[in-house]
Design a protein that fits this description.
- The protein is 32% helix and 16% strand.
- With 294 residues, the chain is an alpha/beta fold.
- The chain has one domain (47-291): Carbamate kinase, CATH 3.40.1160.
């Protein structure tokens, strides 16, 4: 096994207390934060460990990327983790990280266990959802290992405590990691059953003040009809939150989209192929955007 790069932070609890984070809270009580570059308070975010000086052309400076667990298994409907696919995914994310984008990642667990499937087969829904959360931890640790082999410092933070292998999720600590140039992988969903990893991605994006939620999937974008059932389905370049929810356009969990709508968080859905994440962050119109205006 190749040695992992050694970062300046040796343990999950070293030098990262929320007291030293210095990150401002999001607005006052009852305020509604609008996401995007203009929504940040001036002078309150300083990159402590810049990873690149070439960030002037970026549309998004901080993003949360949602990956499906199946994106790590190498084929649709497959299971387990394919080493070559994992390596390619890590290399892709490493290229994006090198541009200076601050990256948070939420990865699903469907390649190992899917809570809804367990419930449909007679398991207790909450129990099967917790099993699904543990599956996301396995994927997150695998992704961390692959990223660090690419020289990308990475932290895994879990919504359920497993201190031996990952840090517990603390919002201000996560933001501190991002400011230091670390990639943060958010594992175990929201830590609660009945909520999808799509919803977890939306929640984490809002908590860390991301500019956008990027969902990398197996289709080119959002279609007006299911492309697997309708040969004439048309991909939409943009769609409003309201239309997405009213027309049940799929691809993404409706709870996650509703949460983004209520807080003005832009979403972009695109196919997970080489170069697309970087193209999105650089401002290219890849896939489908979901916003208020549509």
């Amino acid at each position: 096994m190749l040695p992992l790069p050694i970062s300046h932070e040796q343990g999950p609890d070293q030098g990262d207390s929320s007291k030293e984070a210095g990150i401002p809270a999001i607005g006052g009580a009852g305020s509604r934060h609008r996401f995007g570059g203009s929504g940040r308070q001036r002078g309150q975010r300083v990159r402590l460990c810049p990873v690149s000086s070439d960030s002037s052309g970026l549309r998004y400076k901080r993003v949360v990327i949602k990956l499906s667990g199946e994106a790590l298994c190498g084929k649709d409907g497959g299971s387990g983790i394919d080493t070559a696919t994992l390596k390619a995914t890590a290399a892709e994310l490493g290229e994006v990280h090198a541009t200076g984008v601050q990256i948070g990642i939420v990865v699903g667990g469907g390649n190992i266990f899917r809570g809804l499937r367990g419930a449909s087969e007679g398991m207790d829904r909450a129990q099967s959802d917790y099993m699904g959360m543990l599956a996301t931890v396995i994927n997150s640790l695998a992704l961390q290992d692959a990223l660090e082999r690419c020289g990308v410092p990475t932290r895994v933070m879990t919504a359920i405590e497993i201190r031996q292998v990952a840090e517990p999720y603390i919002r201000r600590r996560a933001m501190r990691h991002l400011d230091r140039g670390n990639v943060v992988v958010f594992a175990a969903g929201t830590g609660n059953p009945y909520f999808s990893t799509d919803t977890a991605a939306a929640l984490r994006a809002m908590e860390i003040r991301a500019d956008a939620l990027l969902k990398a999937t197996k289709v080119e974008g959002i279609y007006d009809r299911d492309p697997n059932r309708h040969a004439g389905a048309t991909m939409l370049e943009s769609v409003s939150y309201d239309r997405f929810l009213a027309d049940h356009l799929g691809v993404m969990d409706s709870t996650a989209v509703a949460l983004c709508r209520e807080n003005g968080l832009p979403i972009r859905v695109f196919r997970m192929v080489k170069g697309n994440i970087k193209r999105v962050c650089l401002g290219e119109e890849v896939g489908t955007s979901v916003t208020d205006a549509g």
